[in-house]
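Example 417.
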Amino acid sequence: MDLGSLQLGVATAATQIEGGHADTNWHRWAAQPGRIKDGSTPARAADHWNRVDQDIALLGELGVRHYRMGLEWARLEPTPGQFDPGALQHYRDELTKLRDAGITPLVTLHHFNNPGWLEEKGAWLTGAALPAYLRFVRHIVTQLKDLVSEWITINEPNVYATEGYLRGLWPPGHNSLPETLRVMSHMAQAHGRAYDIIHALQPGARVGVAHHLRPFDPARRINPLDRLGAKVMELGFQTALLDAMTIGRFRFPLWGGTPGKLRRCADFIGVNYYERSWVRGVNPGTRPGCVTNDLGWEIYPEGLTRLLTHIAGRYPLPIYITENGTADATDAFRPRFIVEHLQAALASGAPVQRYYHWCFTDNWEWAEGEGPRFGLVELDYETQARTIRKSGRLYADMVAHGGLTDEAYGRWLRVSV
Ligand code: IFM
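Predicted structure in complex with 5-hydroxymethyl-3,4-dihydroxypiperidine:
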């Protein structure tokens, strides 16, 4: 497999790897009994805050030239309007080291993580988030634009909204469809404003959103209820947001923007792809009998081809696969997962410029805690020892050769019979 111009990188998010005691919505949530499956908190994670040098050396071992990372808003702005110069310097140092190592950072400004003070004011449900977020964006871009030129304004607004406001499994633990749509609308509006601010400060910047996308397929192909359910979910969970955050088209069930007026508000489409939804009536589920990962998510590379083909036909923009990966504690199927998803991306013929594997190291997986293992690099949470997995070695080989060589295939993927 020849990757052509497709470049490989790895992805992380601040709250999931940094460790420490920032006052975020997640640190507060994890402190409540029963919220996190294994009772863990983000305070340990991968202790990346203290191990930046070690982790940059590991990125060097993988050979990647692209690294997607997040910023912890609560560290940078611990009280409203007061920015912490120490935290800013920490990120400046990290970004400088990355660039010195020949690695281009793609920086996420919001990845499910609100400062505690914003959460207290209702965060994205109320009018509090927009001015606070824009102030944060303005300050951070001004301070980091000499080191960063690629930005993700918001990660997976649909997942943030549905897990926190519909399913109630994430902070703030609500169960309300109107609230979910309000949060989505506020995030879509915030992205458009942030896009303009970043471009005003840094005209050459590349700005986008990391969208969580999946195919929604009716469980019973000719059942009208399943078909309708799949269509409605696709629109409500992703298509309406994609339109609003790419071409400024706000339509039901979202609101905001200027009616009838379209405008470009993304320089690339970020795609986070993990699985498909198998819809029965109004219930999204998993196809019975399919191959799944450790979290029960269907492994379905063809879904990536389908999504990319659809997106490329809808928006004339380059595509970054900003996340793709799988929970596989024993690394039994991750090597094949990676190769098959890269093949699926190439098969789409879509203008995919980047592929960031999720995750660089094992990460604190939100309400699932420390259990799921997504890393190319295995983490021993007790000792913080890092070990590159077989899949990580394969990935490094693909980075070095611009694709999968016959030798690598034989070494990492051939099944002996
Ligand atoms: O770990 C998450 C990440 O924070 C957002 N996208 C999906 C990943 C795996 O669940």
